[in-house]
Amino acid sequence: MGQKKLIRFEAIKSFPNVLQNPEGMQGNWPAFFKNDNPLTLELACGKGEYTVGLANMYPGHNFIGIDVKGNRIYIGAKTCLESNISNAAFLRTQIDRLPSYFAKNEVAGIWLTFPDPQLRKSRVTRRLTHPKFIRIYQHILRPGGRIHLKTDSPVLYQFTKWVAELYHLQILEDIADISAVPINDELKIRTHYENLDIAQSNRIHYLCFTLPETPLPDHDSQLLEKVKNEEPIPPARPMRPPRIKAKSAT
Predict the structure, then answer these.
(1) How far is CA 32 from CA 2, 17, 27, 103, 119, in A?
(2) Which of 3, 11, 112, 213 is most deeply buried (CB count within 10 A of its CB)?
(3) Residue-level pLDDT at 196
(4) β-strand partners of 147
(5) In what order do the strands lie in the sheet with 205-210?
(6) Active-site residue numbers?
């Protein structure tokens, strides 16, 4: 492990706005933030650009960036401490453990900002809009709470629309390319990965949706069939032609 990572891992142990696998937090976030303001999560937050940006934008709300990688959380947490942003915090844990930290209906909204699209079909259950995760969100999200997906991956964008169709999620907003339409200030926040444009798609997709209050139907086999028929992913960059060695003159 690099020296910088070790320094950051050690530093966040003393950060008052970073919690690492804490106990007894279900229903106790108002005590942590010292107010009863609505609570919004940024999942797989990376460096926490959205957690910080939204906290600045909405001082009457509380925000928690969640990621398992402490060296990334360090960036957002340090920014908040230096800028005296008191309505943002960071939780280091796995996303499938969310019910261990949040009570039923405790969360007002969720942001998924450039999560790993998990392009290999064998890893489809790791996509953060897979029903496996939607069922987790359904437990902690209050009725009518909104989930926001912002991604440069056309595969994850289409996959999420399939999930919405099969599992009766209500899509409130669907933007195939946010650069082509007027957008609100929330969508103008840029993440590290947005600037990289890893998918080389030159466009950013956005979906906003809510979840049904009733249990999700079991359409997992139908979803898997759609995934099997996904178009193959083109290479991010044109492949170079093979090099041809020049023949020796001797």
Answers:
(1) 32, 9, 10, 14, 37
(2) 112
(3) 74
(4) 110, 209
(5) 18-20, 88-92, 62-67, 39-43, 107-113, 141-151, 205-210, 170-175
(6) 116
